[in-house]
Amino acid sequence: MFYEPSKKNHGLPKNPFNSLIVPRPIGWISSVDINNIANLAPYSFFNAVSYQPPTVMFSGGAGSSEDGMKDTIRNIEASGEFVCNIATWHTREQMNQSSAAVPPETDEIELTGLTSIASELVNAPRIAQAPVHLECRYLKTVDIPGWTKADEYKMVIGEVIGIHINDELITEEGLVDIAKMMPIGRLGYDDYTRVDSGSLFKITRPR
Ligand SMILES: Cc1cc2nc3c(=O)[nH]c(=O)nc-3n(C[C@H](O)[C@H](O)[C@H](O)COP(=O)(O)O)c2cc1C
Description:
The structure is a single chain. This protein has helices at 71-79, 92-97, 108-111, 178-181, and strands at residues 24-25, 27-32, 38-43, 46-50, 55-61, 81-86, 116-117, 126-127, 132-144, 153-165, 184-186, 192-194. The protein is mainly β. It has one domain (24-194): Electron Transport, Fmn-binding Protein, Chain A (Pnp Oxidase, Chain A).
């Protein structure tokens, strides 16, 4: 099949786009608002962007919010910082719960029964139950056009200035044990996948 997104002519019951670029890692972003109320939400339009310095991006849709911004993005633009917690198999339910649309003054970390711990370099808290935390300094927002106002996205880019890795995930050889960590990835629809010892494989790059 071939279709042109702008013509909405895929003819399928659901837009297949999100099912094609998969699996997408899930950045579980914690931030604080100007009153220091914590916010937590998952973003699968998320990835690493560069190595030195390490940077990450995520992108949030305007939806029906009045100012066209998710709470996470409003907080980050005001505070200049955020933490990216890596979502894993063990926290999949809380990750999903934290995507509920709740008023900005609600602390989703408390709401989901997760434990908040202080960061080293930023005000935004970390999620104790996540095995990896990237403490980030806000770099810039790139506005992504939409067909309508509600379709507009804002892509936030941050520099990773501090990285926490649960020591239990470091192998004797000094590698990160990804199979033990079990990160989850977003597929299309309501589907997810997870990395574990059964799904990992190796390929050596040509010289
Ligand atoms: C696995 C998952 C991935 C999501 N990815 C995104 C995303 O990339 N961009 C987005 O705008 N919303 C995404 N959402 C929805 C947001 O998490 C949801 O709108 C949330 O309420 C935003 O919270 P905030 O306003 O506190 O930032 C995702 C939800 C789930 C469950």
